[in-house]
Structures are given as C-alpha cells and as structure tokens.
Design goal:
The complex is a heterodimer. By secondary structure, chain A is an alpha/beta fold. Chain A has 16 helices and 20 strands. In chain A, helix 1 runs parallel beside helix 4 and helix 3 packs across helix 11 (398-420). The longest helix of chain B has 15 residues, at 216-230. In chain B, 49% of the residues are buried. Chain B has 2 domains: 2-101, Ubiquitin-like (UB roll) (Roll), CATH 3.10.20; 104-230, Fumarate Reductase Iron-sulfur Protein, Chain B, domain 2 (Orthogonal Bundle). Classes of the chains: A alpha/beta, B alpha+beta.
C-alpha cells in the first residue's frame, strides 16, 4: 500500500463530529476528503450516547432557542462563550432536522413529530421549570446518530482509513499540513499530507478509574497538540455524570430522570429536593454529582459500605421503561443483576466528559493563544475541542448537539480553506517524531508495566482530582504525575511484531493520557475558585472578579505554563447559580 | 474463583498455524470475559491481540466465539460460563492475529444492500412526519451494531463467504420497512440475487447469537415476504 497520501481535507476521528465534518467537506466541489480513525467508524463512542440531542423544536411544549442558549450559559456557570451558545441553540435545530432528513429514526409524538423529553438543566422561561427539549431515539440516540452518519458516508463514498492510529500532526511555520499515522494491520507509518486537518477524536476519560468512556478514549490529539506547542483550554473542567453503574461506570442516561426516575440516598430520601428545590433530580450534572458525594460522605450512602446512591425507577410504568429505556435496563440486569423495574439500581458518579480541549474560534479554527491567533489549516470539533460552548459544565444532550453543529461547521470551513490554498511542501523528516515515539516504546527498558502505571494514574486521578479538589491533594497529584512520567520512560512491550501490535499502541496511549492528566491537574491547582464541575473545597465560591476567564495550559519543558483568554460575555450577566 | 481459559492463538509473523493456549487465573463471577482477556494481556502475555472499545456492548468490537457461541466479550460474565472458558475468533472471516479477523468482507456485504436512507423528494423545512406505529415496524433492526456475531454464526455463510449474510439483511430491513424510505425496490433487487436472501435456511443461529436481541430470523422472513409480495 502507498504510504504517502494527499487529500485536500483530512478528518481525524470518525465519531459524530468527524463524520459530519467529512460529509460537509465532501460537498464542496472539487475537494477531496479522507477520514482516519484508530477504530472502525461504527465503534466510535458517539454510539454510546443515550438520552437525546437538545434542540428547541417545541414539539411537546413551547420552547425557544433563547431559552436553550440561556440554559447552556447558566449550566456552564457563565464560563460559556455567549456568542457561541447563542449560535449553537439556533443551528442545532437545523442540524436535528437534517439528521431526520438523513433518515435518523427518532421516536415520535402522537402527531408523528420528533419526540422530546426532559433533561437536566433544560428549562422553560429562563429557569421556571423543566422543559421537553431532548430529541431522542429510545436510549440509543448516539447509536442512531453514528449509524445514520456512517450510512450517509457510504452513500457519499467517503474515503476511510480504518484502524490507522494518528501519532503526530505535521506542523511547519505555525500551520498544520496533515498528520502521520500508524497502520495497525501492518505496522507501517503513513504520511497524510493535507491542506486542512480537522481533529475530531473525542475525549480522555480513561485517565480516571471509574468512567463511562471507551478504552479508546485516551486524549491522543489533545496530547499531540500540546506536545506541538498548542494550548489546551479549560482542562480543569471535567464532568462526572451522576448515574454510572456502581464500580463499573457504565452510563445510565439522565433520560431516566427525564422520564421520572429519582435519586435516593441510603435512608431512601429524595435528597435532591434539598440541593435544587425547583428542578430537583434534573439539576445539572455537576450539582447532582456533588450532592451524591456529600450524601455519601455524611454517612447517608446505600449498601454495606454506604458508598453508593440508588436510582429509583420502580414507580415508572414498566412499558415506559422497556420501550424508552431498554438499553440501560439491560445494562443493569446484565452487569449488576438488578432489575430496574422492581429494584433500586446502585450508582455512583462516573468520569464522563471533558468540557475543555483544543481551543477554537466560533468557526472551529484552532487558535494558539489568548488573542485568538489562528493556526492555518487546523480545525477541531466535538469533545476534543473547546469553542467554548460548555463552559465549566456541559448540560446533558449538548454533546450530541455540539458534534452535529460544530462538526458541520468544521467541514464547511476546512473545505473553504482547502479550496483557496495550494499544497505546501512538506518539511524534511516528516515521520521522524513518530518513529522516535514508536522506537522509544519498542526499545524501552521494560522495567515498568504499562497496565500498572495506567492503574496508578487512574486510581490517583480518581482520588485526588475528581469531583472535589483541594490544594493539598492536587499538589500531591502533581508529584505523583511527575513520578509516573519518569517511570513511563522505562516502559516497554513484549510484542515485537508489526501486525496488530495493540500492546505497543496501549503504551503510546498511556503517554497521551499522562499529558492529559498533567493539563487537568495543573489547571485545577491554579484555579482558586469553585465553578461548574471544578469544585475546590478550599475556595468554595465562584470568584468572577478574578476567575471569569478561560485557562490556557501550554507545555513548557518538563513543566507547564498557564495563560488566559477572556470569556465572551453577552446579554446574560453572571448570577448565582441556583435551580 | 480459579478459572481455566483456552484461547485459540495465531501470530502470522511467528506461527505456521493456529494453536491452543491455556491459562489459569483468578477471576470474579462478575467479571466480563473482556476483563479476563484484558487481565491476560496486561499481566501475563502482552502479545495477545483482540479488538475492544466501549466495554459495554454498544460498539460491536469484541464479538468472539465463546464456549461455542458467538457473543460480545464485554457482555458475558464469568459466572454465566463457569470455570472453563474457551475463546476463538468468530468463524468464516480470515483470521489476522489471535482473535482479530478481517472485517472487510463483512462490511462489503453490508454496503452491498444500500444501507442508507433513500428519499429523493425535497425535504420539508422541519421533520418528515412518521406515525409512532410506522416507526415501531422497524425498531428492532435499528439496534444493529455491526458486530458480525450473527453473520459469522451462520452455517450458510461458513460454506459460502459470498452470501450477504444476516447482518446485511437486517440493515436492509431497517430501510425497506421505513415508511419514509423510497429505495426498497432497489434493495430487494440486490437481495434477490444468487448470494442474497434465498440462501437463508432459517437455522436460527443468527437470532441466538445477536447481542442486541434483534429477532433476526423474523426480520429475514419479513424481507422474504416483502420480496414475494412486492416483487423486485
């Protein structure tokens, strides 16, 4: 196989954002497009999203994009860039209709319109009560989005390079000219020369012990961008979803609470009434996860060790559960042996979503500093990117909205750029860094096992840098990460082969994860306030005077450098966040 | 509990032919088979190769032949298998390394049935309407995750790799029975060919193998009836 490829637009990642981007880029006349993914496209984690995609269609009750934008900004604890949220709330309506036009099988209302249900933090009239905004397909909305977009990509004859693992970006003169990738099947290294590159590789939840994220979610491109001198925006804002299956972290959709499920502590009390009197169990995720931690800490957890919370669906009609929540019902039955129709489901918060990521403009162009300096030829969309729509805490359903709105925009913008530019000659030694990276692991000392270091990383991140944080624990974690980075230099692999050497790639992915953890912990230690998902026990209040700004973390030798970027404000003044 | 795991191994760079490797290890009843083979890879033999991603039965990466039945390694627990566990690659597709098979022929068959929405009418500004009843007709076949557990459990497919197979027919069903779609005739034409629908001998293996509980044989029968009634 030819190992040098040339396309006008390269998309890295084949989940919702990547496939949407590819579709739109390919619609630009004369623009050639290829998608590179370390998985088969249908294995992407968009497929695991369950509850719905939020859009103010108003199919069940009155709704407006202004209300959606406000909820997104308030949900993000005012760190959301307001221009981005406003445009998002409008465009997500068009994007949902478009998915329906591509054949996506949404559930339907009695009149035959797209069905909608309630979801955390989505309200009518700027916070008065919960509103039905989540457009859904049972509890497999993400699966249907991924399948529908993959189906369209077959129709559109998109070029795919499946099971190609991107290990470097080609950067020259401050611009991006493509990527270098490792082919799993052969071990060959390929160069993908592009005029425009779109990064759509998703999240990094595997840095934590209990996570809803797939094994594949190791923050590869966030690390590669960081190593290449680009900043990561707001990595301290990491979302813990309240309802993960106890110990496993497998996600149970917030749509369950949208259908009426209730959280109960060990005493059987509906404790969310105390924390969010108006919308109770449908408060945003950061608030619910914190409330759960506090209940457990104060001795009101459930179970023999009082270390989990119960999700109660037993009062909901069995038919509703079986038809609207079939998958999560099955997860509970298979993995815990608990039947949600009759029994309470043991749950705990699970590491779920990175609000931060590679910083971009509202048009998905990657930027390299707080002055919005654009990196020519580089775009990012979806969880890997930070536009910033989710601010300090993402609302449920807005991740799927993000994929389709910003995936589409990235495709359009990248194709426009590619059509107006010529190919730049590639620098010499374009594969050198990749070869060095691979050889480093192949010829490693094998003194340390990848799995052991990874487990230590996950355990310590969970204990010292998750839902609640303090200076003491974060400083400790900085030291732990430094030690892990040192020991990582001594990892190695047993598999010396070239074909499907998945051990080699797991080792490289651990290196990426360590960078992601470093970004998160340093930014969390630096931000001396509590906002959204970032909750400091030693700085309990939000501090707008000092901290109403985005963090930018840069790699600086063996350490980090932190800079800032202003938040784009608008018509909504930051207010205390109550529900 | 102590378990015995037998895995059919094959490294194309070292082995002339596949062989059985046996491992003894401690596991909990609540462990997924994926947890077991991850443990083997991480602690015992790093060269063991298999695909996995979501680890909870949604992404479709880890279909394997486990104790003689096609299943997802992440969706079957040790306690449901007992202390002897045998794992082989799914059958009928070329083995590339250990439990990894070549998925390209499988996806080629899938693509052959035009697995995408076809409707050339200009769409309305909002959504196309569809009744809840019309939507329910093809609900089951929208659940497919393309794991290939069904197709690689089919005896017809084992002997004739060009048979489109149950997964492709399931995905054709998903569109043929969608009231909004206009491509049924074209798809039925593809399925009416020599290696199409009529190769199905209703062995039911596919239905039993499906980790998403799709009633595959019934879906295939519905497509057969559609072909007879509507013609192609």
């Amino acid at each position: 196989m030819n190992r040098a490829h040339k396309f006008d637009v390269i998309v890295v990642g084949a989940g919702g954002a990547g496939l949407m981007a590819a579709r739109y880029a390919a619609q630009h006349p004369g623009v050639s497009v290829a998608v590179i993914s370390k998985l088969y496209p249908t294995r992407s984690h968009t497929g695991a999203a369950q509850g719905g995609v939020g859009a103010a269609l108003g199919n069940v009750s009155e709704d407006h994009p202004e209300w959606h934008a406000f909820d997104t900004i308030k949900g993000g604890d005012y760190l959301t860039d307001q221009d981005v949220a406003e445009r998002f709330a409008v465009e997500v309506i068009e994007a949902v209709y478009e998915l329906e036009h591509m054949g996506l099988p949404f559930n339907r209302t009695p009149e035959g319109k797209i069905a909608q249900r309630k979801f955390g933090g989505h309200t009518r009239e700027f916070g008065k009560s919960a509103v039905e905004r989540a457009c859904y397909a049972a509890d497999r909305t993400g699966h249907m989005i991924l399948q529908t977009l993959y189906q369209q990509s077959i129709k559109d004859r998109v070029n795919f390079f499946n099971e190609f693992h991107v290990l470097d970006m080609i950067m020259e003169g401050g611009a991006c000219h493509g990527v270098v990738a490792y082919e799993l099947a052969t071990g060959d290294i390929h160069t993908f020369h592009a005029k425009a590159t779109i990064i759509a590789t998703g999240g990094n939840g595997r840095m934590f012990r209990v996570t809803s994220n797939a094994h594949a979610l190791t923050g590869d491109l966030m690390s590669i961008a960081y190593r290449r001198g680009l900043p990561i925006e707001d990595p301290e804002f990491y979302q813990f979803h309240p309802t993960g299956l106890y110990k496993l972290g497998v996600l149970l959709t917030e749509g369950a609470r949208g259908e009426g499920a209730i959280l109960r502590n060990g005493d059987g009390e509906r404790f969310m009434e105390r924390y969010a009197p108006t919308i109770k169990d449908l408060a945003p995720r950061d608030m619910v996860s914190r409330a759960m931690y506090l209940e457990i800490r104060e001795g009101r957890g459930a179970g023999p060790d009082k270390d989990y919370i119960h999700l109660d669906l037993t009062h909901i009609d069995a038919h509703v559960i079986e038809t609207r929540l079939p998958d999560i019902t099955e997860f509970s039955r298979i993995y815990l042996g608990v039947d949600p129709i009759k029994e309470l489901v043991p749950i705990q918060p699970t590491a779920h979503y990175a609000m931060g990521g590679i910083p971009t403009t509202i048009d998905t162009q990657v930027i390299s500093d707080g002055q919005n300096t654009i990196v020519p030829g580089l775009y990012a969309a979806g969880e890997v990117a930070c536009a910033s729509i989710h601010g300090a805490n993402r609302l449920g359903t807005n991740s799927l909205g993000d994929l389709i709105v910003f995936g589409r925009r990235a495709g359009i913008e990248a194709a426009k750029f590619a059509a107006s530019e010529g190919f730049t000659e590639l620098p010499a030694g374009v594969q050198d860094r990749t070869r060095e990276l691979i050889d480093g692991v192949r010829k490693g000392k094998r003194k340390e096992r990848v799995s052991h270091l990874r487990r230590e990383l996950q355990d310590t991140m969970q204990d010292y840098a998750s839902v609640f944080r303090t200076e003491e624990f974060l400083s400790q974690q900085v030291e732990i990460l430094r030690d892990l980075q040192e020991r990582y230099e001594c990892v190695g692999v047993e598999d010396e082969g070239h074909k499907f050497n998945t051990e080699l790639l797991e080792a490289i992915e651990l290196g990426f994860l360590l960078d992601n953890a470093e970004q998160l912990v340093h930014a969390a230690l630096n931000r001396q306030e509590s906002r959204g998902a970032h909750s400091r026990e030693d700085f309990k209040e939000r501090d707008d005077a000092t901290w109403l700004k985005h963090t930018l973390v840069y790699k600086d030798g063996d350490g980090v450098r932190i800079d800032y970027k202003p938040v784009t404000l608008g018509k909504y003044e930051p207010k205390p966040r109550t529900y | 509990m102590q378990i015995n795991v037998k895995i059919k191994r094959y490294n194309p760079e070292a082995d002339a032919r596949p062989y059985w490797a046996e491992y003894k290890l401690e596991a909990r009843g609540s462990d997924r088979v994926l947890d077991v083979i991850n443990h083997l890879k991480w602690e015992v033999d790093g060269t063991l190769a298999f695909r996995r991603s979501c680890a909870h039965g949604i992404c479709g990466s880890d279909a394997m032949l486990i104790n003689g039945v096609n299943r997802l390694a992440c969706k079957v627990l040790v306690k449901d298998l007992g202390e002897r566990i045998t794992i082989e690659p799914i059958r009928g597709l070329p083995v590339l390394k250990d439990l990894i098979v070549d998925m390209e022929p499988f996806f080629d068959s899938y693509k052959a049935v035009l697995p995408f929405f076809i409707n050339d009418d200009p769409p309305p500004p909002g959504e196309r309407y569809q009744s809840a009843e019309d939507r329910a007709v093809f609900d089951e076949t929208t659940k497919c995750i393309l794991c290939a557990a069904c197709t690689t459990s089919c005896p017809v497919f084992w002997t004739n790799g060009r048979y489109l197979g149950p997964a492709a027919i399931v995905n054709a069903h998903r569109f043929i029975f969608d009231s909004r779609d206009q491509g049924a005739a074209e798809r039925l034409g593809v399925l009416n060919q020599a290696n199409g629908l009529w190769r199905c001998r209703t062995a039911y293996n596919c239905t039993e193998a499906c980790p998403r509980d799709i009633p595959i044989t019934r879906a295939i029968e519905e497509v057969k009836r559609a072909l007879l009634w509507r013609g192609a």
